[in-house]
């Protein structure tokens, strides 16, 4: 019962690298954070994904995810300091 869905998920994920999967999760989490309407939650989330993009995909995948992570790490403190709630 369980092997079939896991095998289908595995075949689907083998087509993508870790950076692409993290980017998809980041976009979905960004939409969820925008629904909260809290800029502090958004900035903490951006900082967390910036760290993930800077550390994890640099091991496996193209190098431009590293630059995305560094950019997010620069933007996140600016979002946090300008947040009202």
UniProtKB/TrEMBL annotation:
UniProt xrefs under Pfam families: DUF8006
Coiled coil: none
Transmembrane regions: 12-34, 41-59, 65-83
Keywords tagged on the record: Membrane, Transmembrane, Transmembrane helix
InterPro entries referenced in this protein's UniProt entry, alphabetically: DUF8006
Domain of life: Archaea
Domain DUF8006 as annotated: residue spans: 4-85
Stated name of the protein: DUF8006 domain-containing protein
Source species: Halococcus thailandensis JCM 13552
